[in-house]
Amino acid sequence: MKKGIHAENAPEPVGPYSQALQADKFLFVSGQVAIDPKEGRIVANGIREQTVRVMENIEAILEAAGYNLSDVVQSNVYLSSMALFSEFNNEYAKYFDAVFLPARQGE
């Protein structure tokens, strides 16, 4: 059984896809960029602010499906430059229990 998930507090998809798709007990969240759902535009203040915005968008989608960040087991991260990694990583880590950080892939 599949179910599309829509969160009011996350940005609308910019293409023909769902914010998330639930399949049985699994939830697959679509990729997020730093779009402020209230303003409908990208937050361009810097990588820290962009990371916060993306994580808040993901939290809203998870919540709409009855999940939270402690349920995340894997994430994919794409940065425009590895020079941003340290600042991104410091902010990203604040959203997860240090013992149970999700497995992560990145480019």
Q: Average pLDDT, to the nearest integer?
A: 92
Q: Structural class given helices, strands, pairing?
A: alpha+beta
Number of domains: 1
Strand content: 15-25%
CATH architecture: 2-Layer Sandwich
Contiguous low-pLDDT stretches (5 residues minimum) are: none
Biggest β-sheet description: 3 strands, antiparallel
Describe the structure.
With 107 residues, the chain is α+β, with helices and mostly antiparallel strands. The chain has a single domain, classed as 2-Layer Sandwich (60s Ribosomal Protein L30, Chain: A). Helices cover 24% and strands 22% of the residues. It is built from 2 helices and 7 strands. The chain has helices at 47-64, 85-92, and strands at 2-5, 20-23, 26-29, 35-36, 41-42, 74-77, 103-106. Helix 1 runs parallel beside helix 2 (85-92). It starts with a strand and ends with a strand. The mean pLDDT is 92.
TL;DR of this structure?
The chain is an alpha+beta fold.
Question: What descriptors fit this protein?
Answer:
three-stranded antiparallel beta sheet, 107 residues, alpha+beta, two-stranded antiparallel sheet, 60s Ribosomal Protein L30, Chain: A
List the helices and strands and how they pair.
Elements: E1 2-5, E2 20-23, E3 26-29, E4 35-36, E5 41-42, H1 47-64, E6 74-77, H2 85-92, E7 103-106
Parallel strand pairs: 6-7
Antiparallel strand pairs: 1-2, 2-3, 4-5
Helix pairs in contact: 1-2
